[in-house]
Amino acid sequence: MIVIARLVLVEAARRRLVLAVIVLTLLAVALTAWGFSRIPTLTPRGLPPDQVRLVASQLVILVAFMFSFVLALSAVFVAAPSVSGETESGIALAVLARPISRASYLVGKWLGLAALLLLYATGSIALELIAVSLVVDYQPPRPLEAFAYLYGETLILLTLALALSTRASGMVGGVIALVLFGMAWMGGIVGGIGQAFDNEVVTHVGTVTRLVLPTDGLWRGAVWSLEPALFIAAARGPAVAANPFFASVPPPAPFLVWSALWIAAVLALGLWSFSRREV
């Protein structure tokens, strides 16, 4: 499986897609850094440093949402056609004719794509935080935890898209994964609205969607990691529960365990599906 993972990384490095993503990411970091540099000039007399950092803290969350979406889209884009494309073209048959099991093939794909997304996530998020620190002298309180939550969200979508790729075409699997991702995010908002109005039925909708696809729960963890403690303490009222860009508490430990088990279970389901498919 290590050989397959290495081949995935080599193939990705040979494609112009990687270069295009790097260039676009650098452009996005440059544009957002310019936007952060304009925060002190929001008023004619300028903002004091404390208010600059407060505004920057909320903009960092919006930028994190942008990277969350980009990582989700990247995970689906690279994973959805990874098995189905090679199966339809006959490449998978040629590879599996050698002494490589289907489990090693699929797990190797998963490891290679996970490593590729890890490299991209690490570089892009680190560049963004360094740029923010340089232009407005602000750093979020828990950047490593925020990165872990965002990457966990990426792994969930990668695993889902890869499992779908064992049965569906790249386009169909990608659309399904992205629709489920959007539904999970909307389900989290609906659950927050139910919590704000003390409606148990609506609140359970959000709970169920987070269990079916844990991406929204991990996104809330990233938001909590980026929120300053003073901002969390100042937030009052039930309406804050419906805000998808605010979280007063981190995800509970059982939810994190469930997220890890979810990844393992869906990957196992993908292995079972691929083992019963004709190549």
Descriptive notes:
The protein has one domain. The chain is 78% helix and 0% strand. It is built from twelve helices and no strands. Helix 6 packs antiparallel against helix 7. It is globular.
Give a brief outline of the structure:
This protein is an all-alpha fold and 279 residues long. It has one domain. It is built from 12 helices and no strands.
Helix content: over 70%
| N-to-C CA distance | 18 Å
Number of strands: 0
- Total of helices: 12
Average pLDDT for all residues: 87
* Element-level helix/strand string: HHHHHHHHHHHH
Strand content: under 5%
Q: Structural class given helices, strands, pairing? A: mainly alpha
What's the helix and strand layout?
Blueprint: H1 2-14, H2 16-37, H3 49-79, H4 82-89, H5 91-96, H6 102-136, H7 143-165, H8 170-196, H9 200-212, H10 215-226, H11 229-234, H12 253-275
Helix pairs in contact: 1-6, 2-6, 3-6, 3-7, 3-8, 3-10, 6-7, 6-12, 7-8, 7-10, 7-12, 8-9
